[in-house]
Fold Tetratricopeptide repeat protein.
Amino acid sequence: MFLASKEPGELLGEADHLRGNCLMRLGMYADAASAYADALQDTSYGKQGALLTNQGKALSAAGDLNGAVQAFSAATRDASYATPYKAYLGLGNALLTLGNVTDAGVAFRAAAIDGTNPAPASALSSLGSCFLQLGRPADAIEAYRTALDYVGPHDDTRSINAGLGESLVADGKIADAIDAFQSATADGLYELTPSQQAAFDSARETVSSQSAIASTQAGEVAFDTGADPLDPLGKSGNFMPDPSDTGFFTLSESEMIQQDKKDMKVRRKHRHTGLKVFLVILIILLLAAGGLGFAYTRGFGFPSQQDAVNGLFQAVTDGSDTAAYLSPSLSDDAKSAIVSSIPSGATVTISAMDQNMTTSTAKVTAQLSKGATIVYQVEFDRSSNHIGWTVKSLSADFGTAGTGGSATGEATVSSDDSNAPDSSTGESSDASTDENQGSSDSTSEQSSDTDSEASSTTDSAQ
């Protein structure tokens, strides 16, 4: 079909290339080689390296090894050929079949070190075979072991191990050779080549003979009555204990007992070290837990009462959420009532507190932004996590006098007004003045007005 796609004598490299591929699949190798030769005549088609490599494979299959060598060699000289390792592999196999082991090894080495070769294990294994045939077993061993390092999913490790075993026997490394042969035949399916089987049998015979000789020598030594029973071969040297070094043979029975007791004490000490460390850690944990428990029963928590009341007043000032600082047992109306009674911008300080494990009561002084002060009675209870504190109730303490305050039952307010009277007496200051009695009466009236204004200020602040 591809031949019919062109006129007689027409150069059409692509058609001849595809025709050659088809003929290779059909096993018509001589015709395939001729088709690749026709494709090579079309210089405009290019792909010289690939065509020459395919032609070399066809000629090798057809039995023309010399023609294959020429084709493969020409392919390796094509600088544009993307995968030259294929030509080197074909060239090496053809040369090895012709008996040119040295040049075959050179070709296999070039294929192995080609950077485009994704699986160099096959070329390395063939290189090892060449080294072995050239009488260089040490180089063959290195090649086979490198092949095992680069083995891929399509490489036969059994074949590589068999070649390695044969090389190890040739190099006199019998034990390693037996291991390699056993790895090659472990599955019971791989069949060694005649030369490999002969090497394997030779290695096993060598090991058997060495074992027999060693057993015979051991038997002869056993009946040598003149030998030292502690050192029959006389080769132990410094490994035997010397009395002057150890003192073992010079100790009395009592001294040996004492020494044994000391050794037992040292062993017990080392044996109990882990237990002691565990007990120390356990005691530290128990002390820490006890300290935390005692602090909890004494009313300590996180956040503390001061943190809770500070956070509540600051949240009111910032206009942020206050739920975190109020007791979870309060209703929404109760929470709203507490929040609405707190003046914005106040700074609070706990001046006195009675606390226990679950509840606390505190006297809190609030410093208003204008300078006045309000005293609150605040009750706390534990938060939802039972660790920190939250505000349960807050009310103004009308029975406690603040700075310049009044004990008349109204909220206490302290003013920075220098004319403010002494609220405990409702009368003007006793400081000496040059003013007359009428002036004192006027001052008393002014004091009453001031108390009234302070009371109004407190009411509006609340």
In short: The beta strands are 347-355, 359-367, 373-382, 389-396.
